[in-house]
Amino acid sequence: MESFKLRLWAKADIPVLAKYLNNKKIWDNCRDSLPYPYTEKDAEQFISFVEKQSEQNNYCIEINHEAAGNISFIKGTDVERYSAELGYWLAEPYWNQGIMTEAIKQAIEDYLSHTDTVRIHANVYENNLASMRVLEKAGFHKCGIFRKACFKNGQFVDCHCYELLKLYDM
Question: Which of 9, 38, 107, 152 is deepest in the core (most CB within 10 A)?
């Protein structure tokens, strides 16, 4: 496995972020709100957004001295204020090497250390078996499948739901 480190995003990451995230294979497993094609302007807007956040909830995954992925947490509101949704992607050259599992474990440990979050959940489209394995190896439990809950690439797909509870699973 390549070595990696988690760090904050920086303006210098804009070109490589655009290079790696402009990949339909990644977009196919993310929400449609992620632009595709992904341009340097999109990368610039993302980094500007991250720099303005008051709470650390986006982690740049650095491999070989360049940004190669992201892990993010979206804090719930109202009655879900102690929950957060996990999202992540990794540059294709680094797939299937165990990097994302270890990066998620580190990001969760850091995120939980400075927030009052007790539950982290993630949704995975039915055909993304690698992502399901990543979550399971990181300690998540599948808590259900929402049938045809997501509309991606012109078709309805099942959404596999995973959770990790700070009080029980860690």
Answer: 107
